[in-house]
Amino acid sequence: MIDMDYIKERFKAKADELGADVKDLLKQHGSKKLDEVTVAQTYQGMRGVTGLVSETSLLDPNDGIRFRGYSIPELREKLPRVPDGSEPLPEGLFYLMLIGELPEEKDAQHLSNVWGRRSQVPRHVFNTIDKLPPDTHPMTQFGIGIMAMQTESVFAKAYSDGINKKEYWSYMYEDAMNLIARLPRLAAYIYRRKYKGNVHIEPDASLDWAGNFAHMLGYDDDSFRALMRLYMTIHADHEGGNVSAHTVHLVGSALSDPYLAFASGMNGLAGPLHGLANQEVIRWIQQLREELGGGLPNKAEIEKYVRKTLDEGKVVPGYGHAVLRKTDPRFTAQMEFAKKHLPDDELVNIVWRVYEVVPPILQELGKVKNPWPNVDAHSGALLVHYGLVEYEFYTVLFGVSRALGVLASLCWDRALALPIERPKSVTTRWMKDFVSGKIETGF
Ligand SMILES: CC(=O)SCCNC(=O)CCNC(=O)[C@H](O)C(C)(C)COP(=O)(O)OP(=O)(O)OC[C@H]1O[C@@H](n2cnc3c(N)ncnc32)[C@H](O)[C@@H]1OP(=O)(O)O
Ligand SMILES: O=C([O-])CC(=O)C(=O)O
């Protein structure tokens, strides 16, 4: 038996409403052309092809991400906070993404309580992590931990017992809520085992989701908690086509439960062109510092180092984006946080100097479509300031946050009963026949 909490009831009401709208939209305009696809797009990452629906957020190439219409500066102003807090509660963002309306304080508080109550991670998950060599990359441990937790899926069990299609969303919702609740504990366990002598910190039920995460990691400073709330908010979602979100949507479309789908998305986030770039940025800056023997490098030294990176056929981590065409507002939000809390931090000042040097060099190459920094260019330097220096762990933090967006989206996918995803692929032989006119029409 599944309980109907009031947020779940609200979600169901919203989903019924939107479901009816979508039905109507398809009936009236289902055959209207939305896009045309070129041969180049088919080979080049489907860039610019509109082929997915994701309700939780929408990206503008110049202005960046908006969550249900709200920009990051607006969210920092409008979402509920802890008393005297300076940054939004990620619980509020989750509510906004799920329900489509700004939450009241009590809604965010309710989610803090629900997630707090559901946060227990089964012992066998920790036992599974304990079997891994300690030097296993934290993202690999994270993926394995999520997979080990799949034993808890209420959707998988209900499906196996036999349920009506109309009930799928309800079990998926429960899994999504349980998984979000448990991820900080799993992530903190991985961190403390690998880097803090396997000494673990019990959750503090009086804290909010991100505050408790900071606490379990071992960072109880108020300003670090504020950073975690901001970090968990701004990394949560980036519309539907990015590798992690698309993967969760795709795998979920096979009715794989949220544990399976989310673990798949995390394997995508673990790639250096996606979420792993945050660790690469810190590694790259540290190598620069080592080469120069420490201190704040001047612009000429940074320029030389950037050119060396490019000459070696490597990318400059934290710069460029598949869709954005201006400085990422998530970078700017972190820069503002740093200006307020740690303006004199040396590493942060290097990040800011790199920001002055890199864009014109990338622009000069003539092929880089976006020479500006993305979210990953700034996040590591803030963490280092507070003592969280173990940069291989950074993408796990990103992953915990990303759960909010992709799992809210997964709830929508099932509530709208979206079908299994299966686009068409062709061979180059087929493509040649098509362009030479041997095949006259597409499929
Ligand atoms: C949370 C996130 O996922 S944000 C992205 C995090 N990733 C990074 O920061 C890694 C560095 N950046 C990159 O590799 C790229 O900019 C990506 C992967 C983010 C986007 O890739 P694309 O959409 O293919 O970028 P774009 O169309 O501009 O690429 C054109 C060329 O410029 C190169 N380029 C793009 N960004 C960079 C960069 N930061 N440094 C050097 N070269 C770059 C590409 O490698 C490509 O070169 P090629 O034609 O020789 O293969
Ligand atoms: O949108 C993308 O492709 C990558 C990105 O910034 C994210 O997923 O946060």
Summarize the structure.
The chain is mainly α and 443 residues long. It has helices at 6-29, 39-43, 72-78, 90-99, 105-117, 123-130, 138-148, 154-161, 168-195, 209-217, 222-234, 243-252, 258-269, 277-292, 299-311, 329-341, 346-365, 376-385, 394-415, 428-435, and strands at 57-60, 64-67, 70-71.
Explain what you see.
It contains 20 helices and 3 strands. A hairpin with a 2-residue loop joins strand 2 (64-67) and strand 3 (70-71). With 443 residues, the protein is mainly alpha-helical. The radius of gyration is 22 Å and the shape is globular. It has a 3-stranded antiparallel β-sheet. Among the domains are: 115-274 and 393-415, Citrate Synthase, domain 1 (Orthogonal Bundle), CATH 1.10.580; 277-388, Cytochrome P450-Terp, domain 2 (Cytochrome p450-Terp, domain 2). It has helices at 6-29, 39-43, 72-78, 90-99, 105-117, 123-130, 138-148, 154-161, 168-195, 209-217, 222-234, 243-252, 258-269, 277-292, 299-311, 329-341, 346-365, 376-385, 394-415, 428-435; strands at residues 57-60, 64-67, 70-71. The structure holds acetyl coenzyme *A and oxaloacetate ion. Residues 273-275, 277, 310, 315-322, 362, 367-370, 374-376 line the site of acetyl coenzyme *A (ACO). Keywords: Transferase.
